[in-house]
Amino acid sequence: MMDEDMDSTVERCAALLISDDADQVQSAVNLLKSVYASGDGGVDTFATIVQEIAECQGGSVLWQLLLLTLGQSYAEVLEKGFNHFHSSTLALALLTSSKVVVESYLREGFGTDEKENAREILTRLVRQTVGIARMQFQENKVSRAFGTLVIVPSLECLANFARRSKVFRDAIKECAENGSIFDQYKTLLSAETLAAVSPASQTVRVRFHLASIAVSLAFSADSQMWAIDMGLLKLLAAIYEATPLRELSKRSKRHKSPAFRCNKILLRLLDSDATAEKLLAHNALSGFRPHRRKINGAEPEFVAWAFYQRRFQGEKIPIGTVMSAEDWKLAEQAWNGDLQVPVMCSWRLCAAEREPVVGKGFSKCGRCHTARYCSKEHQKLHWRTHKVHCEANQATAKEGVSVEPGASN
Fold this sequence. Notes:
GO terms for molecular function: zinc ion binding. Helix content is about 65%, strand content about 0%.
């Protein structure tokens, strides 16, 4: 995409995302999706556009989108119109596929620091998933279509934050310590809940996003151990339980299969003696044996259960190819989330372009902390166009806005 076209697309998307017209917001969503799926270079172009939207007006576009989604109460959503809220939540799910956007929200969110922002965003996303499900399926306060259209993109947002941020995973740990978040999300996988999801095709999306959250926790060294202790294995078992056997026969869709991703989680946890011992202590053999047909069905050529069973029993057998920490990090990128969005050097003419998945990452602009650079030289070259947004006062975007804690009730 030429620079002029890129500028036009960024400006157009930024304006559409904060429009009062639901159709305009949906147009931004459709445009971003089309860029991502546009073939060679589409993913990198998408990543660049999203990062530049994050820089726009000192972050005010991101902030306004956050207010339109996690900053509203259920009553406000009904008053202002559901379509706008739904389109805005879809947009939030798209933008948070970028690590740059996630870090921006944790730096400039509802609280005073990253930890408080993470806790508040998690609380609001839990209410927009488990809370809405409870209202929908137990109290009959919302329609099936409304509940599903809120829950699925909100789950995707939660999965994106868990994937991109240790601070957010720590917030999940804190939430789990106060009452198992895994038990709460298991309720989304109950037969009664899934039967009420409308349209029924969205049930796989619920399982997919829950599996993505599980991938983030299981593949990250900072969360593996506590996640096992706090119910991760029960969540995996619930995903297997809710997966129809017929779904596993579609080999072309295996990469997006929740059960396939659960298999990869087990493989990751069994690769380390420390986590394998945890699985043994939690009697993983008993917990997963009822699901052995689905475990095998997710990877029929490998007869995965035979290996898992022996490892669950404590046998020291190799998993096959020896995987380094870097290998597992690359594997996580392939098996996690819906969109694979890299971090790009903010200077568009950069030849390196993508930040390495492993190794030294890009530096950040010392003022806005949003723009990313592979070198000081590229930071200097980018300053001419970046300074307008960098020098924008982010406080101005929040001026006159008051958001009560837990506003998404």
